[in-house]
Amino acid sequence: xxxxIKIYQSCWKNLWLxxxxxxxxxxxxxxxxxxxxxxxxxIIGGWLGVIFFGGGGLWLAVTTLYNAVKxxxxxVVYEDRVExxxxxxxxxxxxxxxxxxxxxxxxxxxxKQIAIDYKRTHFLKKMKSKTTxxxxxxxxxxNFLVSGAIESIYVSxxxxxxxxxxxxxxxxxxxxxxxxxxxx
Length: 184
Prior knowledge:
Helix 1 runs antiparallel to helix 2. This protein is of the alpha+beta class. Helix content is 53%, strand content 21%.
């Protein structure tokens, strides 16, 4: 039996995102303080930019630092499952290989993600579940229309390349399928 594989967020990649957020925040502050700027531009471009990018950059900086200090992995790959850390819940979301048909790397705009193609039975179970809220079902439907999968794993800011993670997950998935096919 293989040990668990831990994959962490890359502090350096997140630093670039934080710096980008800070640049937009500075631009928003400039718009707010500019006397010749119209009120609508100050509100929409200035204040909302400062709130969105300043708050987002601050949230990203704090969570990146917290995860780095506490050594919290973003993904943990086991023999039978992969667990993804959900920051705002401070909990792990488990994806069992037995429920997955395949993993595939997709690119939406400039972000790399690993789409999770569930087996038909599990896909329908997730979509019809009474415990899943209406908003989550609408998000899953939107994700399916955009990427062909109801869920994906964001891999652009991790310490391991997305291609390598996808290959690793598919290798584990193949081993899981082979172990299910062997009679006891």
